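hey so i finally got around to running the thing on that chain from the lab meeting. sorry it took forever, my laptop kept dying and i had to restart like 3 times. anyway pasting the input first so we r on the same page abt which one it is
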Amino acid sequence: MTMVVEGMLGAFLQHGWPSMKTWFDTTQSHLLGARVLWWQTSSSHEAATQVPPGNSPTIIQLSQPKYPSILDWVPHPGLRDLLILNYQSYDIDQVVCDMTNAFVVEIEESIPILDTSDPAVNLPSISAGYSYNLMELVERASAFGPMENPNPQELAVMSLLQSTESTKYSSMQHPIHRFKLDPRFFDKYPALYDTNAESKYRPRHPPFVQKSQLPLPFTTDSVKEYMNAVLHAKRSMVSA
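ok and heres what got predicted. didnt touch it at all, straight out
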């Protein structure tokens, strides 16, 4: 069943939400999303045990009969509970987009400062006690393309992204649970304030890249792609 769900999510990102596919790939969130989706659709004990700790269902989630299912994907339990309890007061699609735009990578330890003097790149020096907008980093990494001979600016971006995989963190913690939110998010949504989700550092500037977009509407072609993904996954399960 997990292969079917993974195939469906992959097809959705490819054909229904292409603007976020690179983000999911870079943050290693594809498998996390598939596990949450499997738990949502099966409600089985086996599925629940495979949900990463940061997304384990809270008492609020288990006790609320109805709320937007996308909130199960919010990686900070306290913020997730606040959204579930108050979802009718918000445009949830907008909140999720704003949240995605607000994720930051915090740098607690010094990373060797590389040459970032190129005005076309305009990436701040990498130093301790600073945060960098995740969406901006993902966009930069995808714009660079294959890195056979990376230049210093490309190395700077990749060093930031790789810092989220530091061995000092528990192997049980998914990278997305280490991304905090730009304090500007809570300036806009003060009633959702969660001290555990807020970054200690405020990036100097809001992200300059195009903001995250909502998924595309369902079409006949996209439904066909989802069905093809299911059939392919089932055939793979049979042949395994």
